[in-house]
Amino acid sequence: MSPTRPYARTLTACLALGLLAPLLSACTRDGDDVTLRVLASPELADVQPLLGRLEEDTGVRLEMDYKATADLAGARNPAYDLAWPASDRSYLLRLRDSGGGAARPESTAIMRSPVVVGLTPETADTLRDRVPGGRLSWADIADAAADGTVRFGMADPRASDTGRAALVGVATAAAGTGSALREQDVSCDRLRGFRSGQTLTAAGSRDLIDTYVRQPGRADALIAHESELLSLNATDRLRAPLEIVHPEDGMVLSDFPLLLLDTRQRPAYRKVVDWLLRTDTQRELTRLTWRRPVNQDVTPAPPLRAAVGNALSFPDRLSIVERLVADYGDPARRTTDQVVFLLDFSGSMRGPRIAALRAAFADLSGADPTSTGKFARFYRGERLTVVRFGGRVLEERTVTVRDDRDLRTLGDTVADGGFGDATAVWSALAHGYRLAADAVREEPRRPVSVVLMTDGENNAGIGYEEFLRRYRALGPEVREVPTFPVHFGEADAAALRKAADVTGGRMVDAGRSSLSEAFKEIRGCR
User: Is the confidence at residue 85, as pLDDT, over 50?
Assistant: First the structure.
């Protein structure tokens, strides 16, 4: 008998078995087994139970290195063959801007999940009662965070895909353009009120959820992927399941792509991708992870059958993302602003103009029901100083916002004050910087800004050159405090613009819209 015949009979039998039972991987695999090292999002620890079957069926073993990283820092380390993040958007933007000519890696979406909000039932009921129709938006969450109704947990945008996607979603909603963020949309940070409600954070959302479960009293909301919140609700770790809210103004959708970093491993990569996209695998991934399948032949579980809704676009420039993350800062460090409002109460402000000013402060105190109004309002912990001036300082009042009573005190200062008989613009601004110097000395890390609103030209007190001399004599920390002039009525626009330029601020023209819109535009500007 030929020595090759036993081998031939064995091969024929194996092929026949392969036709009858495709899952017998010994007959379907070709080539040597391969181990691929993968830089993976910690969220993907929930796919671990399937990796043994992947290896059995394909001969490819995935060695997962779970690290929280928002832009795949370390992905170009030659030790990694693949990357599997929640999103590759920041990484691809960084790759494009690196100037190294690196090719864009092959990438395949594996699963999808939007970044949403999970609310305790009591908090959800409270918020829905405040919103006509009960359909909540990011603006409603920001509004509730600003007034202390919502305390939320969110992963650190500097380190986490999920945290960054959440921040981009909120900022896109705050911009109100309906499109991807542009540079000008983050020139003024509208997220201070939203940020004031953050009481929990972690490098990744898995650690965030673990912290929330251990200390549920520290927050009544979590911002995370829909899949993570559904997975949490499916356990017995909570007193009551979180109510999952898909914000009306849109969500950023993560597609958990698998990226090929080492092109020499393309054959093994294709095996892994084909296996992950198989109908049976997608069905099991959905069951295990609560993520939405990308395979259209798979029917999602009932909680996933509703449409995602408005999917928000990610910025197309890395500089926009980096600026947004830098503006938000360290979420573990509580930060509140101090704003000094210098308000012209000269005689020319009588009548409709003072009514417009009072309406603007009412809007900033929570009366404005619009989306932009909710993002721009005064927030809990913010320190506010109102200085009424005419030919001299008429009144000065400072409050730290704790509740509506503080806002009413501020409103009364604007509503009930009398008027002066002149307009000392530069004396008022010099007074504002004396207050700013005190604030910087008292709390060096607190961001301070000055808002100067006038409807006329300077006709009393010191002149611009004298103000400039006094400003330049200030310490460097105080000179970092910007002034945002609000041009109104017959004010000298050129002079106000000079003051903005020299202090690092920006002038806003209320004549083009309204005082309310002008004040909203400069809220939190840096």
Answer: yes
